[in-house]
């Protein structure tokens, strides 16, 4: 027997309008009644593997020891593998599809120490039709791991270096500024970019300014650097060091996403005020930099 | 004292925007602190007893032993009875309104072994105004059952054969095909029909074809029979044996409901390609069968 | 060591689309694995402190002994204090921002017996950027309280009488009727007003009538007094003594909010039929009182 686990944390794109999540939990509760279930979120946009991987990466430093079941699985029923990935010498096991969803979280926890493909039918449920992987494969795997079944029992070992890598986009440093992307729009309309403080310093020459230029399509706006949403005067756009240590476009008590018509995946250029003007003059569409909303 | 229970599984149309579900759980937790609460779903459309009964029926084979509280209750405050229905010789008790909501799940678990009407005020909460049945009647009943109160204490016995039956519609076999109905549109836009493989074989003459005709209003489409969503070429409509063993209209990684403008309750005719053409020629509006999207 | 607690009940405006709630729960589970987590709701409209305070007030009579974490916190990062408020001589502790959110619930439980400001960094998490108060301050406070850390350890005492009061609006008795307000529109479209039975008797002269006049903007409608939604004939507007002992505008099995175009915060005048006619004649816009929908 292997180590037993007490907690199963769940992240899916199943939503809560249907009973999908309830059935996954039912299977785990039935097989491993001692385990506590913890919902990370089930609100990932359907099939959006990257958004799921980012949400899991943001959460994982806080997730308690135990099992994580993560399912955003557009390739269910194809040749994509179902896997369980052990991290931190067994302090945790991440269970889900091998499509990049787990990769950033695995990296953050220090990398995989073991991995297996979930092929042992003895530890799966039989489906009355198409496989519902969350219910039939991932939930039973999580429950059996909680019960002390060793990872190696669930299927053949997989070389962790051959797991599908994650899909986190890197910003590009160009002559007209940092070409970034909106990673995540949260409930409050804050738009997290794929830029941390180091990239900001790298991409903008000289000492860190108080205000930067932000270009979105042919809109151009000034954004104040801040370390708390509430530092922003009413209506002033901010580039805030958010609670994950990334930079986010934000307005105090209002939705920056609505104000700027920004959605996940949209490109954003961040530059020093001078550089941006130069860049724009060199070939871009220009518009006055607004320090305040009109 | 009767048997004690460890799990209370919940299914309602309360949504999660209000604190309704939280209050129901609070009452149970307060009265029976040892019980674990498990949400099946709270996203049933308000007052949609049939949708609730179908979701409960899909979930019930996986629900752990214990109590189920199910509340979709348009008749709250009227003469409709509040009941507790014991199944599987006491392995489970379903608690809710006697309006058909529980009936399919009770049938799937083998039928009621006992039932009572929840009229004993000693096991209810007093409301400051109108009765909130989930909070004042069903939650306390569930908690007291968990604590070992016998079903018979909660109120007078009800003849299980006199409980309100369920409302699952049956398909009709007609000369132009199987007249079916959309039972459920899930988060991914898959449209589950009230047809299983047996009805398909019964309704379509000859050996089971690879492709069938599907008529929705005056649209006509070809649908490929499949056992996994991912078997479908991009844009190809499928009639997939879903994870509950029912046939569902589906597209790979896209919403069939959006593509076909289908909603729960909509009629759908499924036929062999030849039959359907004949049927259409006999009187229907016809349109070319598209094997692929244009 | 102080008293230990077994339950942490949660109410926030975080929604469930992001992993915010999951991370808060992860922190509590990690620090206090014995505690059970109970979601009251996370569907409070972003930044709507009053709506959050009302939902918490409706729930609090049912919440089990233990810790409550409530977060609707537009002022996060400003000088607003983070507090923990002990009630009922330690039977419960409410943790959250000192912005009025907790006040009505504290009052309902009999008032604060102790309060502290959460400033002891030893019982907080360090944030990689801006403080995420739910994760970094409130969740650890709740967990440490569960573990028996005394309230006084979490920070300096605060005089409970100096906590921010709540913001529950009172109805006004005017010559043309009771000037009330929609406190809450629930999932079913019922519109709870800030009027209880006593205010109704006070504001409408003579014995309590069967039917009252309700004025919303320049619409005027008759509403039948009822003690259950199902008492209302189809399409008849009711003023129902709801399950919290407040009066709510309601229709049987339909949304009164949709029918009357009412939203939270909207003004509503309730009057005797005669008074209302007089009031209207004195200066208001008049329209026929409809006893039934046309």
| CATH topology name of the largest domain in chain A | Rossmann fold
For the record, the CATH class of the largest domain in chain A is: Alpha Beta
Element string of chain A (H = helix, E = strand)? EHEHEEEHEHEEEHEEEEHEH
Q: Give the end-to-end Cα distance of chain A, rounded to a whole number of Å.
A: 67 Å
Major β-sheet of chain A, in short?
7 strands, mixed, barrel
> Uncertain spans of chain A, ≥5 residues at pLDDT below 50?
278-294
Query: How would you name the oligomeric state of the polypeptide chains in this document?
Result: homotrimer
Mean pLDDT of chain A: 91
Rg over C-alpha atoms of chain A, rounded to the nearest angstrom: 22 Å
Number of strands of chain A: 14
In which order are the strands of the major sheet of chain A placed? 8-9-13-12-11-10-14
Helix and strand arrangement:
Three copies of one chain form a homotrimer.
Chain A: E1 7-12, H1 20-31, E2 36-41, H2 49-59, E3 66-71, E4 82-87, E5 92-97, H3 103-108, E6 112-117, H4 133-146, E7 172-174, E8 177-185, E9 191-193, H5 197-203, E10 211-216, E11 219-226, E12 238-241, E13 247-250, H6 256-260, E14 267-271, H7 273-283
Parallel strand pairs in A: 1-2, 1-3, 3-5, 11-12
Antiparallel strand pairs in A: 4-5, 4-6, 7-8, 8-9, 8-14, 9-13, 10-11, 10-14, 12-13
Description:
The structure is a homotrimer of 294-residue chains. Chain A contains seven helices and 14 strands. By secondary structure, chain A is of the alpha+beta class. The first copy, chain A, has a seven-stranded mixed barrel with strand order 8-9-13-12-11-10-14. The first copy, chain A, has a six-stranded mixed beta sheet with strand order 2-1-3-5-4-6, sandwiched between helices. The first copy, chain A, is elongated. Chain A starts with 6 loop residues before the first strand and ends in an 11-residue tail after the last helix. The interface between A and B is medium-sized, with 33 and 37 residues.
